[in-house]
Design a protein that fits this description.
By secondary structure, this protein is an alpha/beta fold. It is built from 14 helices and seven strands. α10 links the parallel β2 and β3. The longest helix is centred in the N-terminal third of the chain and has 19 residues. The protein binds S-adenosylmethionine (SAM). S-adenosylmethionine (SAM) binds next to α8 and α12. The site of S-adenosylmethionine (SAM) has 19 residues, from α8 and α12.
Length: 294
């Protein structure tokens, strides 16, 4: 090896430690990320090797830019909704061969890892659906806008009046996964209708497809803040959802940063309710999520 590996490892470790103080990332993951990146860039590895001490290194403009770029990249890596799906694929293969209840359970536990939002809620699905059941056990039509893969966890047995559950999201991978699981377990998911859809398309086609003027219930879980951040011009379109009641949620802690954003998100959700012209009729909390109904 050209350069002092121990010294490079030590610097990668220090960068990782600083990063994990503010972000939800394991020290191991951050350390190997910084180490790989230093080793990939000869100019940086050389700098680290030649530096007399950490202060001197921190003053170097090339190194500072390198650290800034790495932090940004790792941040975006952590923000990605979906995790590696190799184990999900193998549990889907097993379910295709034998669509048993045990295999469905296995698939669902892998699905929970597939989408960060469902993963965060996974342990509390029962509490979440209990509360929803208290209020909406008689719902017949549900539309879940920006649903991710959460509809797969919907306990149909407890909402047996549901005839159509429109599960819509712009994310093709989430929709394809739900369609695939429905095709493997048709009896379990006959109520589920997953479709690729973007808020910009509006609601008319969905109403026609599902033959309703108004859905009984619209779910918009952890969606409003995402849309507000990424496509603010579409928030108004979300407001126009044709539904008797809407269930809107936000998170208390940032997905990636160790940062309490509950107050900000709650304000955003309440403002959203107001712009929709809806009165809040109920509210409840999960560990990292608050749910407002109106
Ligand atoms: C934070 S996730 C929430 C997923 C799910 N509702 C849950 O709580 O488990 C936000 C979802 O909104 C979807 N989304 C964002 N912008 C959208 C848009 N313009 N049209 C449709 N879906 C959108 C994303 O694809 C993503 O699945």
């Amino acid at each position: 090896m050209k350069y002092n590996q121990e010294k490079i490892k030590e610097v990668a470790g220090e960068l990782a430690l600083a990063f994990t103080k503010n972000y939800k990332c394991s020290l191991d993951e951050a350390s190997s990320f910084f180490l790989d990146n230093i080793l990939k860039q000869d100019e940086v590895a050389k700098l680290v090797d030649a530096s007399a001490n950490p202060k001197q290194l921190a003053r170097n403009a090339v190194f500072r830019n390198f650290v800034k770029k790495c932090k940004k990249e790792l941040y975006y890596q952590l923000r990605k909704y979906k995790s590696d799906d190799a184990s999900l694929q193998s549990s889907l293969d097993a379910a295709r061969k034998d669509p048993s209840d045990e295999n469905l359970e296995q698939v669902l536990s892998e699905v929970a890892q597939f989408h960060v939002s469902s993963q965060e809620r996974f342990e509390e699905n029962e509490i979440f659906y209990d509360k929803l059941n208290d209020l909406f056990a008689n719902a017949e039509t549900i539309i879940d806008a920006g649903c991710g893969v959460q509809p797969l966890f919907f306990p149909f047995g407890r909402f047996s009046n549901v005839k159509r559950y429109a599960a819509i999201d712009k994310d093709k991978a989430s929709i394809a996964l739900m369609q695939e699981i429905k095709s493997i377990f048709p009896q379990r998911y006959q109520w589920l209708y997953p479709d690729v859809w973007n808020i910009g398309e509006g609601w008319d086609n969905l109403c026609t497809e599902h033959d309703v003027e108004e859905f009984d219930l619209a779910l918009m879980l952890k969606v409003v803040a995402v849309v507000q951040r990424t496509n603010p011009e579409l928030v108004n379109g979300l407001c126009k959802v044709p539904a008797k009641t809407i269930v809107v949620s936000g998170v208390k802690e940032s997905m990636v940063k160790k940062q309490d954003i509950g107050r900000r998100e709650r304000r955003l959700v309440l403002n959203f309710m107001e712009s929709c012209g809806r009165q809040k009729i109920a509210e409840f909390d999960l560990d990292n999520e608050f749910i407002v109904i109106g």
